[in-house]
What we know:
By secondary structure, the protein is mainly alpha-helical. It has a domain at 209-291. The protein is 73% helix and 0% strand. It has helices at residues 4-18, 22-30, 33-44, 49-69, 74-92, 97-119, 129-137, 144-159, 165-168, 171-185, 188-203, 212-225, 231-242, 248-259, 270-285. The protein starts with a helix and ends in a 6-residue tail after the last helix.
Amino acid sequence: MRRTHYTILLLLLFTLVIIPGCSIQKLAIRSTGSVLDASFEALMAEDDLELAKTAIESDLKILEGFLNIDSSNKELLLLAAQGFASYALGFVEDEDPARAVKLYERSRRYASRWLIAEADIDLYAITNLTEFEAAVAELDDEDVPGVFWMANSWASILNLSLENVEAISQFPKVETMMDYVVKNNEEYYYGGVHLFFGSYFGARPKMLGGDLDRAKKHFARQRELVEFPFLLCDLFEVRFVHLQELDEEASRAKLNYILNFDLDKAPEIRLINKIAQKKAAHLLDNLDDYL
């Protein structure tokens, strides 16, 4: 059953290839909403990382094929933005940071295109910070998805490019976007904006605005917003709070909690929690590098 959504998408792609006429192809693509939703739900419930990795890789290329035909399809653009960011975080970042940056750049590009289609604004083209802040302030609640995924991917690019002074100078734009998400829909994507701010305030030195107490409050707020355990919150709290405090005992205890968590307690997000377990194992194996 878990391969059914993939088979349907392949059949649809084959159909699009043999059907002439751009408008007919677009109509076929736009009729796939329920299939894509079912695909996403099946993938999120997956606990086999290899199967999930293969499915995501295939689905991302299918999405890009669809977008070559229907370039302003907002549903596909958002799925591509989320998909490339999630794939980079779950399967690439720890092993190949340089490749992860390229994948996050794709995610940011698709999120930017979503905002152009949804709100008729190209945030990435605005270089002046004051003008950027003013443009973000004009957005409304419906623009949250594009802003979140653009900022999420942008932040990931910057975190993997800290040796680049020019990259670091872009953080105020990301913070502006995430402030907007907090104000307009802090619950979006499992309260993910609070994972950003928890990591943001936890990772920065005090002289640059770092604040471990603020970081802890954001991680606590994420837990308040989500009714089931979201293990990435625990993982990021280890990385950006406990390890910043050089608290080895708390770090090991929370990493072991993640590793021993029963994924069936949150079946809707088995994949996200399984990825958190994979990353927790990697962090535990390399904990001495942080202490």
